[in-house]
Every structure is written in structure tokens, then in C-alpha cells.
């Protein structure tokens, strides 16, 4: 998508204005610790820009899926201790959605100030994209800025509805995401490869259907490859598959021929009886998975083949790990390929873009999260973008 089509934050005068800023603070908290702060950190330029203009900022975000009711464990108040040091600013928390009280609290504080509204998904009407709620939210400020790319596939009151009632623009993170993602999918330097892995074809079918029309090589790994192998009549033992996807998998192979896309499946596989740390495992040819075993990673021969393809390519898109990477040693191929992608990128031979919650975790385990050309902050939104879909939160900030 051409970013000329969207209204940009830098073109708006926020001086002495109140800005409703949609961010995505749906961040991973494990045992009380924030395990990945990138969704917060990467909005610093937008926050700093607006504060330097002297604006009052009201941050809107969801957290988890509370479905329209208050859930104390999903209160954004819990995140303040993580957010304040990252922004290096004090946050004024707005706990209740009482429009009059919120307005007087905003009024009481000087320009510039930074407010955080409680979890938008506590509000009935948020996920329904309710017009009355969108209008109420809009009444709190002078304009709306969306910088939550990772929530822009949701047509909710705080991502899409609100922009019907206020002048709206894109923050710096959304602009960066759109530039990076459009570059590789719309006008890539060829040849271009995509790696799609993960557990289920059903969740990524539309991604695969779109990519076979766009890429020269489609490398399929993870448990998704098991279903593809099964569809080709290969015995896959006890491996995780989706039998109901067999015909669809066959169809993908046929379609790929018509679009000149090479589908690459594993030719050797790493198998074990259980998916557990330190279980005995062996490598087999991809048609020789023993009956009592399951495929948990691709083998070294396949790794070499994937590396050869990457060496031929100028562009790579990656979503989904090649194996069950959370359990050692089934992380090996994902890590090995991640390092290769990082090296080719650092040498200037490859433009590499990755996205997806588990994909980004795997890149971190491989210590290459700073070495790819671009890592998206989005999970579901990245997939919908790979499907070629329009994202409602982006459509609504077009000029
Ligand atoms: P992302 O979050 O990056 O989009 P997915 O959620 O689609 O990725 O897929 C990641 C999951 O796929 C991981 O939990 C991983 O363990 C699982 N997975 C990958 N390969 C296999 C396999 N061969 N067998 C079972 N699970 C697998
Ligand atoms: C995400 O984490 O992908 C976004 O914040 C969207 O969350 P959702 O899938 O609960 O809408
Ligand atoms: Mg995932």
C-alpha cells in the first residue's frame, strides 16, 4: 500500500490539542513479568512527537479478551509500571469510562500530558464497533491517531469506529510497518521466497493461497508440512495433521503449478515418539516416518536446501517456525535458518521481513531479532496482511 494514501501524524498540528492515540499494549506478561516490550518501545517516536508539540495524549488500548466486562487481571493499570520507564513519562490513569469525569480530568491537567484509558475491551460496544461508543470516545479529543498496526485488522470502536467522527491519521509505527510490508509483497526484488510454518494449515490457508500467487518459492515447514506430505500419500506416523485439510492441500499444489510457484516441502524429518524435552529422536527421509513417531522438525538436508533457496533470493517473507521450536532439540532448523537469513541480510544480499508471535519468539531465541530487515509487531494483522486483506484500522486513516 502506498503510504501517500494515508493521512500522517507529521502532517497534523497537534499544538494544544487533545489526541486520542490507539496503541497496542496487548503485550505478553508471564509470571508477572513483561517478556517482550517491543509493542510499547516502538511507539516512543509517536509519543515523543506529540508531547514535543505540546499535546495532551489519551492512550487507548485493549489487553487480552475480557469481552465487554471488567476483569481485574486484564486492567491496564497493571502495565503502568512497565510503560512509564519506557516512555520516561508519568501516566495519568483514567480508570472508569465516565465521559464527564474523564473530560474534567483532562481539563484539570496541563499541556502536554499523557493519559491512559482503562482497557477498551471492558466497554460494551468496543468489539461490536458500536456507533454510540465510537462517538463518545471521539468526544474526548480533537483528533485520532492510530499507531496500533497489530490491532488494525479489528474493526472495533477504538480502532475503526472512532475515526468516523474525528480527523484521523497514522502514527510513525504504522507508517513504518506499511512501508516495510508493502515493499516486500507489492514490489519485491526477485526472486522472492516465503517460509510459512506453524501448526495448522487451516489458520494460514488464505495466506498460502495469496502467497502462491506472489512468490517464486513457498517453503512450507512445521506441522503444516505434515498435512501437505499426507496429501501426497506419504506416511507421517503419529504426526500432528489436519486430515480434513487433505483435499485443500492437494489443491494448493495444483494451483502453485499454474502460478509458477515452487512449493518446497521437507525431504528429511526429525522424529520422536513424544514432544518432550530430551526425548530420543532420529532423522528419516520424509517418506519414512515410523508409525509410532511424529515429525517435529525438518532435517539437516532440508535445512541445506532451504539455505540454497534463500541464497538465490533477494527477498524473504517469514511467518511460522519450521519445527516445534519451544522444545529442544526441535528448535534446531528454525534457529539455523534464522541465523542464515540474518547473515544474508547483514551482508546486504537479502531483504527479510518476519512477523507472528511465535516466529518473533523463535528469532529471539536465535538472537537475530535485530538482524532482519524488518520485524513486524503484529501477529493476526500480519497474517491478514499476508492474505492480501484490507485492514479496517488502516482503511479508516486513508485521506
Ligand atoms: P506464529 O505465531 O509465528 O504465526 P504459529 O502459531 O502458526 O506461528 O505456529 C507456531 C506453533 O507451531 C508453535 O507452537 C510450534 O511448536 C508449532 N509447530 C511447529 N512445527 C510443529 C510440528 N512439527 N509439530 C507440532 N507443532 C509444531
Ligand atoms: C494481537 O495481539 O495480535 C492484537 O493485539 C490483537 O489481539 P486480538 O487477537 O485479541 O484481537
Ligand atoms: Mg502463534
Can you describe this structure?
The protein has 399 residues and is α/β, with parallel strands linked by helices. It folds into two domains: 3-176, Rossmann fold (3-Layer(aba) Sandwich); 188-386, Phosphoglycerate kinase, N-terminal domain (Rossmann fold, 3-Layer(aba) Sandwich). 34% of the residues lie in helices and 17% in strands. It has 14 helices and 17 strands. It has helices at residues 38-41, 44-52, 80-87, 99-108, 131-138, 172-186, 201-211, 222-231, 246-258, 300-312, 332-346, 357-365, 380-386, 392-395, and strands at 18-22, 29-30, 33-34, 56-60, 92-94, 113-117, 143-146, 168-170, 192-196, 217-220, 262-264, 268-272, 281-285, 294-298, 315-319, 351-354, 374-375. A six-stranded parallel beta sheet has the order 5-6-4-1-7-8, with helices on both faces. Strands 11-10-9-15-16-17 form a six-stranded parallel beta sheet, sandwiched between helices. Helix 10 (300-312) packs parallel to helix 11 (332-346). The protein is elongated and about 70 Å long. The mean pLDDT is 96. The site of magnesium ion has 2 residues, from helix 12.
Blueprint (SSEs and pairs):
Layout: E1 18-22, E2 29-30, E3 33-34, H1 38-41, H2 44-52, E4 56-60, H3 80-87, E5 92-94, H4 99-108, E6 113-117, H5 131-138, E7 143-146, E8 168-170, H6 172-186, E9 192-196, H7 201-211, E10 217-220, H8 222-231, H9 246-258, E11 262-264, E12 268-272, E13 281-285, E14 294-298, H10 300-312, E15 315-319, H11 332-346, E16 351-354, H12 357-365, E17 374-375, H13 380-386, H14 392-395
Parallel strand pairs: 1-4, 1-7, 4-6, 5-6, 7-8, 9-10, 9-15, 10-11, 15-16, 16-17
Antiparallel strand pairs: 2-3, 12-13, 12-14
Helix pairs in contact: 8-9, 10-11
The structure holds adenosine-5'-diphosphate, 3-phosphoglyceric acid and magnesium ion (MG).
